[in-house]
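Retry 2 of 3 after timeout on previous attempt. Resubmitting structure tokens to design endpoint.
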């Protein structure tokens, strides 16, 4: 998920884009931007960077095991074919 600092930064940037004549609304707009961003981002099916990295490592380990198993199956198949030829 997005951390509060990131959401605050985006809301602050959006509020900073408000024309100078509307400065009295700036604080309210920033709070509204923050709430809207937090709500919208909360609805997305996102994972944290940490969770992503963990899953990336799990996938790499699984891929390595699969490659080892594929090699073992190929060796066993070769042994079976060699015995059948005798």
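Retry 2 succeeded. Sequence:
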């Amino acid at each position: 998920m997005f951390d509060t600092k990131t959401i605050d930064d985006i809301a602050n940037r959006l509020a900073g884009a408000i024309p100078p004549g509307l400065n009295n609304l700036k604080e309210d707009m920033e709070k509204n931007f923050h709430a809207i961003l937090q709500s919208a981002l909360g609805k997305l099916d996102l994972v944290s960077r940490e969770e992503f990295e963990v899953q990336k490592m799990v996938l790499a380990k699984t891929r390595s095991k699969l490659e080892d198993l594929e090699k073992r199956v190929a060796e066993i198949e070769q042994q079976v074919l060699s015995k059948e030829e005798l």
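Attempt log closed. The chain has two domains: 1-46, 47-86.
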